[in-house]
């Protein structure tokens, strides 16, 4: 049985979405980010603190002290995008790579998303979540400028392809959609990449995404 450690309000959402799409049985063990406890005035190391990213027991699973982590038959894996590529290969089927070429393209897009898009996109999500003041507006504008080039690269790809890889919905779409989602609150940016916007909305119309999202919305911020 697969165990996923994390929260819905974290990058674990991409793994939960993938697990639901793939129909793999799993258990979700809640592990909260230490900084979220500190924001509420709770010491993450207090004996009665909830299980969190700084709990010694959690650091035995990952010295990086971040969520998510997945455990499957003795395999401990961190890095949410790598976890999804593993899950898809384990389950097989249409979401998984059909051959080494597709696998390479799925890795290419996961790495591009993580290195070129995720950082500034997260800045946008955080700025909107805080309530946009003057400083937040500056962060959003700088991040949007940084994102224009990689999102235009996706736009060019989607002009010639219906999906990220293989002309069908795969784990590469889940990985990229969950990264681009962080930029989604900034409508003026998304309006400049209409194909990316439509592809993202199509990905998010899938029942497995909607199920994950409804539960995430119910989790305290
Ligand atoms: N590259 C990692 C990033 C993991 C990460 O930074 N997770 C955040 C939550 S989304 C975290 O656990 N932060 C914990 C902390 O800073 O205490 C991945 O994709 O899994």
Polypeptide structure, described:
This protein has 221 residues and is α+β, with helices and mostly antiparallel strands. The chain has 2 domains: 93 residues, Glutaredoxin, CATH 3.40.30; 110 residues, Glutathione S-transferase Yfyf (Class Pi), Chain A, domain 2, CATH 1.20.1050.10. The protein is 58% helix and 8% strand. It contains 10 helices and 4 strands, in the order βαβααββααααααα. It has a 4-stranded mixed sheet with strand order 2-1-3-4, covered by helices on one side. A hairpin with a 2-residue loop joins strand 3 and strand 4. Helix 1 runs antiparallel to helix 7 and helix 5 runs antiparallel to helix 6. The radius of gyration is 18 Å and the shape is globular. The two termini are 29 Å apart. The mean pLDDT is 97. The structure holds glutathione (GSH). The site of glutathione has 14 residues, from helix 2 and helix 4.
List the helices and strands and how they pair.
Layout: E1 2-6, H1 12-22, E2 26-30, H2 34-39, H3 56-59, E3 69-72, E4 75-78, H4 80-91, H5 100-130, H6 134-160, H7 171-180, H8 187-190, H9 194-204, H10 207-218
Parallel strand pairs: 1-2
Antiparallel strand pairs: 1-3, 3-4
Helix pairs in contact: 1-4, 1-7, 1-10, 4-7, 5-6, 5-7, 6-9, 7-9
Structurally, how many domains make up the residues?
A: 2
Give the name of the CATH architecture of the largest domain.
Answer: Up-down Bundle
Mean pLDDT: 97
How many strands, what sense, and barrel or not for the largest sheet? 4 strands, mixed
- Strands, count: 4
Helix content: 55-70%
Tally of separate helices: 10
CATH class of the largest domain: Mainly Alpha
What binds here, in terms of ligands, is: glutathione
Q: Whole-number radius of gyration?
A: 18 Å
**Topology as H/E string?**
EHEHHEEHHHHHHH
Question: Which fold name is given in CATH as the topology of the largest domain?
Answer: Glutathione S-transferase Yfyf (Class Pi), Chain A, domain 2
Q: How far apart, in Å, are the first and last alpha carbons?
A: 29 Å
């Amino acid at each position: 049985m697969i165990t996923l450690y994390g929260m819905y309000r974290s990058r674990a959402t991409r793994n939960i979405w993938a697990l639901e799409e793939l129909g793999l049985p799993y258990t979700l063990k809640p592990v909260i980010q230490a900084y979220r406890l500190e924001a509420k005035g709770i010491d993450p190391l207090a004996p009665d603190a909830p299980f969190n990213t700084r709990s010694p027991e959690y650091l035995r699973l990952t010295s990086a002290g971040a969520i998510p982590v997945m455990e499957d038959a003795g395999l401990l894996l961190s890095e949410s995008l790598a976890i999804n590529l593993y899950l898809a290969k384990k389950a097989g089927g249409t979401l998984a790579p059909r051959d080494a070429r597709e696998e390479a393209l799925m890795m290419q897009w996961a790495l591009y998303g993580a290195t070129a898009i995720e950082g500034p996109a997260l800045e946008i999500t955080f700025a909107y979540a805080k309530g946009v003041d003057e400083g937040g507006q500056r962060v959003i504008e700088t991040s949007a400028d940084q994102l224009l080039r990689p999102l235009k690269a996706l736009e060019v790809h989607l002009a010639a392809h219906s999906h990220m890889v293989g002309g069908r919905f795969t784990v590469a779409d889940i990985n990229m959609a969950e990264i681009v989602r962080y930029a989604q609150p900034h409508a003026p940016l998304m309006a400049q990449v209409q194909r990316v916007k439509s592809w993202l909305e199509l990905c998010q119309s899938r029942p497995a995404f909607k199920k994950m999202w409804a539960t995430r919305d119910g989790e305290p911020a």
